[in-house]
Amino acid sequence: MQPVKYNEVRFTTDDRNESLGKKIREATTMKIPVQLIIGPKDKEAREVSVRTKDGEEKVALEQLAEYLRRL
Question: What is the pTM of this model?
């Protein structure tokens, strides 16, 4: 099994000084298929919020690579 960094995954980081809601709305409007949201609580819990067209789900950081492969 190859690490995610060797697969063809394109990503960008939105670190603009905008509200989270605005960033999510814009990403949804741009039809970005998968959004990873990491806030202070997520970081502390070592989790990532994964948003897709089917909804949002919390995923443990250790399980993120496998979760993304299954999408």
Answer: 0.79
